[in-house]
Specification:
Elements (H helix, E strand, L loop, with lengths): L15 E5 L9 E2 L5 E5 L2 E6 L8 E7 L3 E9 L3 H16 L19 E5 L5 E13 L7 E6 L5 E7 L24 E2 L2 E2 L2 E6 L1 E10 L3 H7 L2 H5 L10
Antiparallel strand pairs: 1-2, 1-7, 3-6, 4-5, 6-14, 7-8, 8-14, 9-10, 9-13, 11-12
Length: 238
């Protein structure tokens, strides 16, 4: 007899995020407004023993490379909340792909921060130590842009949608619900304060991550039997 299994649909938010152990400023956690596509790969390296007079060569195991994680993330700017998340994501990725540098930096010489990657529960990606090896973003030409106006405390105070460069006047699009006056800089007591920036109403960011384990901890903690039993997942081993 075939047993039928009924699955119930559960409406949950599968949290995917990056979090630094030692944050810089207020850049404490990068969450993704839409579930990103995650490409996860592991390369196993074997060397060939070049034996003569044989049809089949022997392979000798050399090492297993660090896992690579690639994210294709969608962002938008159609609401104030999404605009802030998109601006935060760009600032986060720019910051954590750079080292401490400059004579005024008390921590100069420190390499880019190691982040922790979380996704899809404790047995998939949990507390995985990673570094950003590459990120890229395209500013598309065929979508409308949203202008955000920030005050001097970096608080978003206004947004307004503007047409793309096919509109020669670059004026707000009334059909898109633009906010009147949002295209102007913030003026307080007759002086311009804060700053403005433009983001595509919809765009993608690609992020490449490399797993960076602590070698000392890996030597003393890792055990293949424990790994196979799932006991090491919470320590970032994947």
């Amino acid at each position: 007899m075939v047993k039928t299994i009924h699955y119930s649909t559960i409406n949950i938010y599968m949290s995917v995020y990056l979090q630094p152990k030692n944050p810089v400023g207020n850049l404490t956690k990068l969450e993704f407004p839409y579930t990103p596509q995650i490409d996860y790969s592991v390369d196993v390296k074997y060397d060939t023993y070049n034996t003569t007079h044989t049809n089949y060569q022997l392979y000798g195991y050399t090492r297993t490379e660090n896992p690579q994680i690639n994210l294709n993330c969608k962002f938008s700017a159609h609401t104030d909340e999404h605009f802030k998340m998109s601006e935060f994501a760009i600032r986060f990725l720019r910051t954590y792909s750079k080292m401490n540098y400059g004579r005024t930096d008390m921590n100069r010489g420190q390499t880019p921060r190691i982040l922790r990657f979380f996704a899809y529960g404790t047995q998939i990606f949990d507390n995985v130590p990673v570094v950003i090896s590459k990120f890229s973003m395209t500013f598309p030409e065929d979508v409308d842009y949203v202008q955000g106006t920030f005050d001097t405390a970096s608080k978003l105070v206004a947004t307004g949608q503007v047409r793309n460069n096919k509109n020669p006047t670059n004026q707000p699009d009334p059909r898109a619900g633009a906010v009147p006056g949002a295209e102007k800089p913030l003026v307080v007591n007759g002086q311009t304060e804060g700053y403005t920036l433009y983001l595509p109403i919809f765009f993608q960011i690609s992020i490449s991550l490399l797993v960076q384990q602590n070698l000392y901890r890996a030597v003393n903690e890792f055990n293949l039997e424990d790994f196979a039993a799932g006991k090491l997942n919470s320590k970032g081993y994947i």
